[in-house]
């Protein structure tokens, strides 16, 4: 299969996934698109929004259109790390002797729904750190590899709601995208009511299995990025670092810390996926700008002044996109 055929196959698969998900999910086109981009790039997704907006339904629907094993973990304040990773149990052999046997936890699946992840304590949240980064877990003294491909799609309620524990920065940084789920419009809400209060139930078809998904992820990695586009991604990330020579004025004013290198990796990979979905085998400036908010909003840490004035990371990212020129020569002029 030549490159053009690979790109066409990628576009068709992407379109079919969106079509099947659209049979169940009303609206939320940017959320669906962002989730699919992260999956094709091999990253994890954090969905934030108040309860009842369809975050869990989106992940469940995704598990239905992807022919992958799926487990759901409901995070609660009393959930323990062993409830996620697994634990050693004492079992009796046929000959009557007892021995320890590792009972795998729900983390051992391709697609993990971490529902209301910020309702668990930091100790339990940290059980996902190794799994999300290294695709392995250390449990009962042994390192165990996780299935490939492996994704964590987590939902969380806004931090200011009662009974939530903010995710630590190290864990937030491991999420490829943070997507904000908003309230539906009047037309969308009407369609939600039509679909959920009548007897008809949408049936979705399997579109993609694990082996084919891995092949598409390899294709994403092969998409070339021009030097000047890659340089633009670097300058966007460095512009978020306050008190540095490359900092944007708004970063100096409102940020304590800027994005990690993972922010730059996310911009490039998301740009590659977006390029393929539009039938291109090269990344543009627009690809990076479109991905910037989802890629960076959870990687910027606000200072007290920003919090006091109600400034959001999205506002800062929008301003940085305006301040950082696409042409590197304009920086040195």
Task: Describe the fold and architecture.
This protein is of the alpha/beta class. The protein has two domains: 3-78 and 106-213, Rossmann fold; 224-325, Magnesium chelatase subunit I, C-Terminal domain (Helicase, Ruva Protein, domain 3, Orthogonal Bundle), CATH 1.10.8.80. The protein is 47% helix and 17% strand. The longest helix has 20 residues, at 3-22.
Blueprint of the fold:
Layout lengths: L2 H20 L6 H13 L3 E4 L6 H11 E2 L2 E5 L6 H5 E7 L5 E7 L6 E5 L6 H4 L3 H6 L1 E4 L2 E4 L5 E6 L12 H4 L4 E4 L5 H11 L11 E2 H13 L4 H12 L10 H6 E3 L3 H17 L7 H12 L4 E2 L1 H6 L3 H11 L4 H5 L1
Parallel strand pairs: 1-9, 1-10, 2-11, 3-6, 6-9
Antiparallel strand pairs: 4-5, 7-8, 12-13
Helix pairs in contact: 2-12, 10-12, 12-13, 13-15
Question: What's the mean pLDDT score?
Answer: 86
Rg, nearest Å: 21 Å
Which CATH top level class of the largest domain fits?
Answer: Alpha Beta
Strand arrangement across the biggest beta sheet: 3-6-9-1-10
Task: Classify the fold: give the CATH topology of the largest domain.
Answer: Rossmann fold
Total tally of structural domains: 2
Unreliable spans are: none
List the total number of helices: 16
Structural class label: alpha/beta
Distance between the termini: 45 Å
Helix content: 40-55%
Overall, the morphology is: globular
The helix/strand order is HHEHEEHEEEHHEEEHEHEHHHEHHEHHH
Q: At CATH's second level, what is the architecture of the largest domain? A: 3-Layer(aba) Sandwich
Portion of residues in beta strands equals 15-25%
């Amino acid at each position: 299969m030549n490159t053009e055929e690979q790109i066409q196959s990628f576009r068709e698969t992407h379109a079919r996934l969106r079509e099947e998900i659209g049979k169940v999910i009303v609206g939320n086109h940017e959320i669906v698109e962002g989730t699919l981009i992260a999956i094709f790039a091999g990253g994890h997704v954090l969905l934030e929004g108040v309860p009842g907006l369809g975050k869990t339904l989106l992940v469940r629907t995704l598990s239905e259109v992807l022919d992958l094993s799926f487990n759901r973990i409901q995070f609660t304040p009393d959930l323990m790390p062993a409830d996620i990773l697994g634990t050693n149990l004492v079992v009796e052999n046929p000959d009557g002797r007892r021995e320890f046997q590792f009972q795998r936890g729900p983390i051992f699946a391709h697609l993990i729904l971490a529902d209301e992840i910020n309702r668990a304590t930091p100790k339990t949240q940290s059980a996902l750190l190794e799994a999300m980064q290294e695709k392995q877990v250390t449990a009962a003294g042994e390192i165990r590899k996780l299935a490939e491909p492996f994704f964590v799609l987590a939902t969380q309620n806004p931090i200011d709601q009662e009974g939530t524990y903010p995710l630590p920065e190290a864990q937030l940084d491991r999420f490829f995208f943070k997507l904000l789920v908003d309230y539906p419009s009047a037309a969308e809400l009407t369609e939600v009511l039509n679909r959920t209060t009548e007897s008809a139930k949408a049936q979705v078809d399997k579109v993609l299995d694990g082996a084919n998904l891995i092949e598409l992820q390899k294709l994403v990695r092969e998409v070339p990025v021009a030097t000047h586009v890659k340089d633009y991604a670097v300058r966007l990330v460095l512009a978020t670092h306050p008190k540095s020579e490359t900092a944007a004025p708004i970063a100096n004013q409102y940020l304590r810390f800027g994005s990690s290198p993972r922010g730059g990796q996310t911009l490039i990979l998301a740009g590659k996926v977006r390029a393929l979905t539009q039938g291109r085998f090269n990344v543009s400036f627009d690809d990076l700008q479109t991905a910037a908010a989802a890629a960076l909003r959870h990687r910027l840490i606000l200072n007290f002044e920003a919090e006091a004035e109600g400034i959001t990371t999205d506002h800062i990212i929008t301003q940085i996109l305006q301040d950082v020129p696409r042409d590197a020569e304009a920086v040195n002029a």
